[in-house]
Amino acid sequence: MESKGLRIGELASLLGTTTKTLRFYEQIGLLAPPRRSESAYRLYDGEAAQTARLVVELRRLDLTLPELQELLANGHEATRRSRLQALMDEKLRAIYLQLSVLQGRCDDLEARHAALLATPRGRPPQCICEALLRPCTCDAAARSRADTNGA
Question: What does the angle CA 34 – CA 62 – CA 106 come to, to the nearest 5 degrees?
Answer without folding.
Answer: 160
